[in-house]
Amino acid sequence: MESQKNNAPKRPILVRLSLWGVKSRRMALTFLWMCVVCGVTSALLGFWLLALYLIFVAAPMYWYSLRWVDKNDTWPLTPQSKTSMVILWVFTGAFLMLLVTRELFIGYYNIPQNGMYPGLPPNSKIFTAKRAYSNPADVKRGDIITFLREKGGRSYVYIWRVIALPGEKVETSGEALAINGQAAQRELVGEAGGEKIFRERIGDVSYEVAFNQTPSNRPPDVAITVPVGEFFVMGDNRFDALDSRSFGTVPFSAIIGRKI
Hints:
Strand content: 25-35%
Distance between the termini: 60 Å
Number of domains: 2
CATH class of the largest domain: Mainly Beta
Largest sheet: 7 strands, antiparallel
Number of strands: 14
Structural class: alpha+beta
Strand order of the largest sheet: 1-2-14-3-4-12-13
Order of helices and strands: HHHHHEEEEEEEEEEEEHEE
CATH superfamily of the largest domain: Umud Fragment, subunit A
Oligomer: single chain
């Protein structure tokens, strides 16, 4: 056995990296199948980059390393090392924590459009708290929420700001916005790219909004009383947002998260 090990060809760097800390064939097979199972699970939960890495990089590395050792070397018959066990449990624990957090608590989104400018410019990345509200009373004016809405038979995630609460009367016309007959207060804070940026205040809530000075399309004028259990949402970039002025109010049941 010792002479076979001495005569074995030097292991390629890929094999050495893949089998670092792995002392048995059983452990290598365990890592291989963990990569496959965790990769499929990641894909089902929307972790596409992680899924691609596990299925098309990590798993093939273990498979290649197993085949190489089977053909060119011998597996040591020593008991599994503590190092390998630590690697296994750290990998498993971290992955399970990631899945639980992603599934139950945290959402992650990329904003591809300009509708939440200036606070969230295009390609902004946000984290959201899932199940952030237990009932409609928990939703506050000014919250940036994520919600589902169907369009063309498909379900899409929208990210807009809550402007009006259930039972409130909303009136919008051009730049004007009023809640229960009280006009939103605005203070000009800057101008950039042909858009004027204001600090808008409704009651004790304030945030920045933008108005394009030469809009190609203006949202429709709206006068509506928000139904019970629903919310009126708007984009901060008021002339570049498909929001409640176009598709109506958002039911509480459609809300899936709140920006952290």
